[in-house]
Amino acid sequence: MLKKASIILLIAGLGFISCSKDPVSDLSTEESLVYVTNFNKSANFKQYKTFSIVDSVLVVENDRSGTALTEIDRSLLQRIITNMEGLGYKYVSPKSNPDVGINAAWITNTYLNVASLPLSSYYGGYWGGGFGGYGYGYPSYYQYYETSESYWLVSMLDFKNPNKADSTVNVIWNAQIRGSGIGSPQHIDKMVDSVFGQSGYLKNN
Amino acid sequence: MNKTALIAFFFAAALPAFAQDAPKIYTLPSPFDRYTHYLATARFTGAAPLGSFSDQYISKSSFQNFSASLEWVLRNSPFSVGGEVGSTYFKERLPRALYVNGEETISAVQTRTVSQYPIEVFGNYHFLGKASNIQPYVQLSGGISILDYVVYYGSLSNQDQKIAPKYGIGIGSKFLFKKDGSFGVDVRVKYNGTSYKHDYIENGISSLDGSVGIFYRWW
């Protein structure tokens, strides 16, 4: 009798444990967006007066890259110009020696990950749950999964004070826009406004 | 000595004693008084965060907590001992806010969660007898908690998993549906603490839990 009860208790316990939760499934597209900005604390933004911007978006996917200028890329670049002008910078052509240059990139990284089940089984549902391995020819206690993440990366480069010694320019500010809604054109203005809006130190006038 | 002889010898010794008890057969104490018996309880729990856990991480009460326990109610003793496994889950969503860390600023809608799968042993002290319809008790428990701490920034997550020590002290009562019956309701108020320190949680996870359960006992 005791044995049977213990087994029932154990099964009940496993039942609880295998319940998976996705606490962010109810986030709206706008709520899913995350804006991360960083600046170089030794930069004095008051010294920069003019800026220029790349004419297309750099697309980086793992180790490959190219450029693109789709509708959403155009909106992004245009909105960056609007924001920079709002902060007091003057938009000039790349040929007229701007103080700062702005790069915009769409970056996608894909990873192949391995999870060992004996370690991860207690949070079972996290990576799709269930016991994979069957039919894959891998050891059954290994689970393979692939993750891919994309984000916008906007960087501000200091053309005014280049490092002549090693021919580099410093990144004085950058912004990452992450989250599941980053590819939606209707949110692009909001995204750009947000990254500039949370970087008050860029103000120049 | 062969087997038959042994059995006969046993009955020769036991029967006279049994015969003396026989007239009192209808006044015998309940089997739950006479035998060490088993008691299984399934509980649903509401939990209110306390202390620094509530101040710094999640203050919202949780109603996604469940547990099951099995206990041995000891004969001739006010004590019972047992084990309990469960699942608790706290979650709180914060509106978009800025999180500044040095030169880095993050703007995000934060979703804070902590899930625990506690595995504990406990001891109960009962104030009234096992035949009583109402059986108040106090409880001490200790064990481990398989803990999963996840803070989501938008849809990105920052996770920490750990097996942490856990303890609890509670007061409760069992209410039998009928005298000497097998089924009843268990009501318990319990302080639960988990020793854990990470990120926003600086001084453990503590909560005041109220639970309602259904139990079944048998021998």
TrEMBL record, chain A:
Entry superkingdom: Bacteria
PROSITE patterns: PROKAR_LIPOPROTEIN
Alphabetically ordered keywords of this record: Signal
Signal listed as a keyword: yes
Keyword check for DNA-binding: no
Chain ranges of the DUF4136 domain: 36-198
Protein name: DUF4136 domain-containing protein
Source organism: Dyadobacter sediminis
Automatic annotation (TrEMBL), chain B:
Xref: SUPFAM superfamilies: OMPA-like (SSF56925)
Keywords: Signal
UniProt-listed InterPro entries: OMP/PagP_B-barrel (IPR011250)
Protein name in UniProt: Outer membrane protein beta-barrel domain-containing protein
Signal sequence coordinates: 1-19
